Amino acid sequence: MKFLITFAFKNLTRYKRRTLITAGAIAVGIMMYIFIDAMLMGAEYESVRNLKWYETASARILNDEYWENRQQLPLDLSISDPDKIIDRLDENGIIATKRISIGGDLILSSQEFGEDGNLPVTVTAIDPSTDNEVFHYADTLIEGRFLEQDEDAALIGSWFAEDIGAKIGSWVTVLARGNGGFYEAIDLEIVGILNCPNPNVNRTLLMIPFDTADYYLAMDGAATEINIKLSDLADVDAELPAIQELLNGDDLTVMSWTAMARDYLALAEAKRGGTGMILFLIFIIAAVGISNTMLMAIFERVRELGMMRSLGMSDAKIRIAFMLEAAGIGLLGSIMGVILGIVADFFIINVGIDFSFIMRDMDIGYRIQGIFRGAWNPGTIVIAFFAGILISTLVAYLPTNRALKMDIPSCLRHQ
Amino acid sequence: MKIKRRPLMIMIVMLCIATTLSAMTAEQIMREADERQTYDSSRSSGQFKIKDRFGTKVSTFDAWSKGADESLIEFTSVAERGQKVLRTEDSIYLYYPDAEELIRMQGSALRQGMLGSDISYEDMTGGKDRLSQYDIVLEEDSELVFGRDCHVLTLTAKTRSVPYPKEIVWIDKENFIVMRAEYYTKSGRLLKEMETLSVGTLSGIEVATETRISDKMKTDTETIMILDELEVNIRIDDDLFSLDELSW
Q: Which of A16, A207, B141, B247 would you label with A91, given CA atoms 20 to 30 Å apart?
């Protein structure tokens, strides 16, 4: 066996150029695999983070009947005394904030925007004193200031502001239905522009103070939701029963972010299937490249193979020698591929690729505004490393086998 | 002497009675107007002229109603032929024949303009029983609207469940037709305006035959509703207002 290993190693060093070219092909395939896996994993990780930071929080308390009627944004299916619930959560060390989700029409006047118009909007009324303990909007402020309690003011997403031509100091009117069904028009001054990393939010975000919505829409202190922040490491589903216990008797229910983002998670699951297919194809391309170069490497050495056979070396030993040689090429390629993959990962994780020119006008499901950043996935790196060696070894089997089926004179005459 | 005084007393008493009779209360005026708008059953046909900055679109319709709560509109113009809007006591349904789809209108969808007009589905659901929903005050006993002498009433909602917390209506003193109405938000912003442009007699009943509705939150838009035919107190099958019949 030692002889065969030495023999394979000598062959590798004897054909340096061929070895390097074949190992290079393997390295490129492995690098692509590691790189794309890191990018997609990062996109998914960041999407989930942006979903929790800007849409769902870790969990949400709602009126029992709210969720099934959520499309209508009903104000009457509310939490009548949210402060009492928040205090109860606070006593148990849980951070929470109240909100009101309001459906309405945004009325734009020609004096402010050059043209009259109206468009449907969802307005979120937040408690400015506690919202940033659960969500992360304050960090995304790029112009103006954050909301204060009880003012006729609004924050707007930067893409939404761009789309309608809103600036700091612009006035908009929201026509909404109050608690019970009456119409109310609220004039609001844009006091801040937020560049939210979650594109779904940044396209439509309009926020007003909780007290303002409470007054105009006759909410009598009620909120439509209480959002809860749990530790990033917490098992949210495991925490829910304890939170539900605190709500008993109030006709309220607590939902985890996974239950609220079921549509996104189903989409992510489907994407994962598609991603697996892409990675599989990359692997196939790499494997075809490897097998092609191995095929050429073996066929150009059929005469050498015939000579070894005529000198009495057994077919099994020849097959093992060639497969060890292929494994050597695979090992070299895998080492190079992993090194290149880690370098590429450093780039995608720390710098990222800016896809904002696509994401600005298109919703591809990911909650990422533009720059795709990757995430380390050691499991993939290990798998790619061993798969590179294994595939290289296996693809050498067929051409070697074919050459071994030829008789010795044919091998010796092979051109 | 007694004989001389008698005609004078009779005249004073008659004047007092006439004055009392003519001084209707705000509630009486509103009740009269509501009752005159509501028929046991009716069938009508007419058209909507929907004007916006892109031009004017005309849609024709046939409509049936029973009491104050049930009505059915079927559009007959080419672009919308077969589309139906059914109003029952507490819901509105739309039927699109091309998609063979029945949609129940809810929430903010009720504010959408019917066929893009200034008349929302919400306006269609609005009950005619304004007496129980609003506090009504007679603001002016006499004001001219399009040359007609009108009572001016201010309606302030008693509950939060009506879409317009405040309405001002001008009701013709003679025929109790609403000649003009303004609809306000809770904070007093004018949302919509309705004006009766012409009054005519159809099947022996004096009705508003041409009405203009404009959404004051939009500019350059108005909808004119023209009533061409009206038959009242006719026999209408109850099934006409059922969901089964709507999609048939």
A: A207
* Per-residue DSSP letter, A54: I
Q: Is residue A27 a contact partner of residue A329, using CB atoms and an 8 Å limit?
A: no
In a domain, B221, yes or no: yes
Nearest to A52 by CA among A272, A233, A191: A233
Q: Which residues does chain A have within 8 Å of residue B159's beta carbon, measured at their own beta carbons? A: 180
Query: What are the domain boundaries of chain A?
Result: 2-51+265-413, 59-229
A189-211: pLDDT as tens digits: 999 999 998 888 899 999 999 99
Nearest to A39 by CA among A49, A27, A31, A51: A31
pLDDT band at A92 (very low <50, low <70, confident <90, very high): very high
pLDDT of B21: 46
Distance CA B152, CA B163 (A): 20
B235 inside 8 A of chain A by CB: no
Reading the block at residue A151, the tokens are 């003012």
In sequence order, the 6+-apart residues with CB closer than 8 A to the CB of B5 are: none
Yes or no, beta carbons of A181 and B191 under 8 Å apart:
no
Residue B186 is nearest to which of A71, A72, A182, comparing CB atoms? A182
Question: What stretches of A140-261 show up as alpha helix (H) in DSSP?
Answer: 158-164, 199-202, 210-216, 236-247, 257-260
Least confident of A20-29, A80-89, A363-372: A363-372
By residue range, what is the domain housing residue B113? 25-246
For tokens 């005394």, name the residue.
Answer: A81
Q: What is the CATH number of the domain that holds B97?
A: 2.50.20.10
**What does the alpha-carbon distance between residue A395 and residue A337 come to, in Å, rounded to a whole number?**
18
**What's the ipTM?**
0.79
Amino acid present at B17: I
List the single best residue of A183, A215, A219 to mutate versus B (max B Cβ within 10 A).
A183
Tell me the CA distances in angstroms from A316 to A124, A172, A214, one per residue in order. Answer: 73, 82, 84
Domain assignment present for B5: no
pLDDT > 80? residue B100: no
Q: Which residues 167-196 of B have a C-beta within 8 angstroms of A?
A: 185-187, 189, 191
Q: Tell me the chain B residues in contact with residue A184 when contact means C-beta distances shorter than 8 Å.
A: 185-187
pLDDT at B124: 67
CA-based nearest distance A63→chain B, Å: 17
pTM: 0.78
- Name the minimum distance, in Å, from the CA of B183 to any CA of chain A: 10
Q: How many CB pairs under 8 A join A and B?
A: 66
Longest dimension (CA), chain A: 99
Judged by CB atoms closer than 8 Å, whether chains meet at A182 and B111 is answered as no
* H-run or E-run covering A105: strand A95-108
Domains held by chain B: number: 1
- For residue A91 the two structure tokens come to 């006593």
Establish if B18 belongs to a structural domain.
no
Mean pLDDT (chain A, rounded):
87
Tens of pLDDT, residues A96-148: 999 999 998 899 888 888 888 888 899 999 999 999 999 999 999 999 999 99
Q: Which of residues 76 through 105 in chain B touch A, CB cutoff 8 A?
A: none
Around A390, how many Cα atoms within 13 Å sit in the side-chain half-sphere?
Answer: 7
